[in-house]
Fold these 2 entries.
Entry 1:
Amino acid sequence: MVCETWMEKIDQYVDAELAAKEQTAFDEHVKTCPRCSLEALDRFKVKQAVQIAGHRFAPSTEFRDRIQSQISGKKVATRRNWIPALIVVAAMLTVFAVSAIMMKQRLERQRLLAEIADIHVSNLAASSPVDVVSTDRHTVKPWFQGKIPFTFNLPDLNGSEFSLVGGRVVYLQHEPAALLVFKYRNHYLSVFVLRNTPSISAVGAVGTEEASFTTKSWASNGLRYIVITDAGPAQAKALTELLKTAAKS
Amino acid sequence: MPLFDSLFNFAHWLTQDRTEAEDLVQETCAKALKGFSSFQLGTNFRAWIFRILRNTFYTSRTGLKAAALVSIEEQELDNAVIIRDTPESVLLSQIDIAELQRAIEQLSVPLREVLLLCDVEELSYREAADTLGIPVGTVMSRLSRARQSARQYLAGESRTRVTGR
């Protein structure tokens, strides 16, 4: 399929409205097409900004109280029908609460994933993506001593297709994090290691594929590990397994 | 009442006035309570209550005015050629939320409501179509135009900032 045809579907792609098969095909396309990739990222950014900008107006406390008292007032006025009315109000409140909780979790997760993707992209675009440049894990790991309030193990990459590029300290949700950069052929994989605070755990444990990036996240020994890459799900999984094994050792 | 905040936010965006938004939400709540029996379990509650709010808005004085404009704008929109934008990545790299809010305010009501439902309330195309009483294809085209307009507005503002004009 040519770019023009994909471009016609780019809004549906950004809105996750394409059929699963087409969504996957689009994912594959953006990995190799800088034009569509940039356009998709651009649109994700605007969509996210609209989401933030759109939450602009809040009802006043007085208005909220007035509506609540009116609902209560109606219950008195229709005393004979108070049970169905109460059920209706309870049902509405339940639906409101469940919807709000789900929406809040989804929003928090999306914002966190967007922040992770932003750091990954901007870091790789920097003239030097790492502050400690070494393929040796015994050089990179000690470099973080005194810079972050925790420690972690790095995997032995001998015999794997990955190589260590280095690391640096970054901040995610105001939490200091070790950012480790690995390389697989011409692709880079960023690994964030940080304390698993409630705001960080919002990212969830499952793997995702958003904005053409593959993201994997899991918690171990009170730390949260997040892998993000454009290399593909298989490579993200392989590195994840190596990191999990290292964490247990 | 968490969805209460979403309803108020949407009402304020539609009416562009706090008092009118309060009246609209109040009427919506009253209608929802009265007509709760018409809500079919298993269907989307958010879409249902947003549809009540929107229908109520279009019967208000402000809504009737907006509807009068809509019929003319709709014709123009349907005849309009969708201009695919050039990459504005650099200009959009730092989106100013206040400017984006102004961009949303500039949109006509049909474009503004579809943008808010899909991007802010995160309704699917199908749910937005059910809320607005329009086909899914129209949701898609309006959403595309809304985003296009917002992007162009932001790009224009950014250029003005850069050139100082």
Entry 2:
Amino acid sequence: MASLTRKLERGRAGLSSLGIHAILIAYSVLALFPLYLILLNSFKSRRGIFGDPAGLPNESTFSTKGYQSVITNSDFPLYFGNSLVVTGVALFFILLFGAMAAHALSEYDFPGSTFIGLYLILGIMVPIRLGTVALLKLIVDLNLANTLTALILVYTAQGLPVAIFIFSEFLKNVSHEIKDSARIDGLSEYRIFFEVVIPLVRPVIATVAVFSMIPIWNDLWFPLILSPGESTRTVTLGVQKFVGQYTVDWGAVLAALSVAVVPVLFMYIIFSKQLIRGITAGAVKG
Amino acid sequence: MRTVKKQPQPRRWHILVFILPAFLIYTVFAIYPIVESLRLSLYQSIPSAQGTGTTAEFAGLANYMRLWGEPYWAEQFWNALKNNFLLFAMHMLIQNPIALALAALVSIPTLKGAATYRTIFFLPTLLSVVIVGFIWQLILSPLWGITPDFMKWLGIREWFKPWLGLESTALVTVTLISIWQYVGIPLMLFYAGLLNIPEETIEAARIDGLNGWWIFWKVKLPLILPALGVVAILTYIGNFTASFDIIYTLQGGLAGPDYSTDVMGTFLFRTFFGFQSQLGDTYMGATVASVLFFIILVGVAIYLFGVQRRLQRYDF
């Protein structure tokens, strides 16, 4: 029966499945080709990159010098570490504080809860970048200019609205019974959060994590403005400055770019299934 | 850890504990700076009476008058705003239809390898603009890019132009690169919307004799209009703020050639920070940011009160 409807569908649809695959594969090539170019050229010498950017590395152009110089004698490991710290810590705060606030808003009735809920998700519509002028002043006044702490605080503030929104949408549909029975068992409200609610929201944590991580890891604006100093540069800013120089070690740039992609790629591949589920549960209904 | 409850707690401190961290960080580092920027836009810097340094003095709407009245500012402002709306229009007309078409194809239930396609289409979105910028220069550069050679091979070398370097084509080229990178986001949102459509609805349409094409137009499209609304407003907001990154990376802070790719983001950056010969001005920077704030506010208001409310009846 199922195969019959499938056949009917295929027969009646405007496109044959061959045609559909042709379109999708064509677009896949378009999406992947530039990535292939980066990887390919990161294994070539300078002459190989500019002499024949699309060519495969051969005996005369193959070189892992780029990777070697990235690892040994550049600031890249430092930048990479900075990005990891900023993204990791900000992500932790976004997930923890976001889940806490969303839990409080959906679990308890208290005066002003609707207003606070709306206030906290306002940031989805109003980008934090608009406050850059005063933000820089604030960061300087707090003696946080050129620190990773400044970036962590700003990214946490930037990520919270979306996190609170997605967590709240999800928690709205979770039954109260589990929490109430935990309460009857005598668990404190804090233990209910950590032992009951956190495991419940696990499926959407991936969605929130991926959505929060990508813009933080790849951001150029705030590192450029709040912490452009040599020792606090993130990967994105570090590589951007690198590319702008005249005597550039292109092999190293490409190697650095290739390595910089790895953490986001890793997160995405792990979480891609949950990501879809999370969007289905939350974002679109907004 | 055992907690002995004597009576129901009269003060529910835990609610405060749960909300306060998010509330404080968000208020101090997101809301306060935006409000403070709006306030700063009403001030001007004047040399202080003591002779050293400057002090801020209330100036009313003087900065706004300068922004729209002085040719130096007005010219940059209107140019950036026009480019922003062009950017928005191109994303709406090119990026979002491509995303919708790909999402429609990928969501066909019988399609093999749908997950792989989805992952591939989303990959460019994960990349930093620095990578995207560099790689497209590697492709498009007239000196060492691969496109001239490729076109020579196809026999159409004479059609090659340094697209990123020409005033007439730079903005379109930058937009297409941005579309290449970000098509994954609307694609995911459309895809999730399409998955949300109940199987019975589509089955009913099929029994009524509609084929795949008409099911898409008559059944699926109206049902994912809310997703379309979300995509439209996200495109609008992103276009005014996030577009800075790709343009700064590809065309630099002056958004060349001759400001032809200047948008509000790069204009704000130059005004606030200064660039090369131009000195930075905190108060004019705050003014540009505030104008941007109101432009976004108008878009959001249209979405919330016009678009979203009208879409509500399609909810299921």
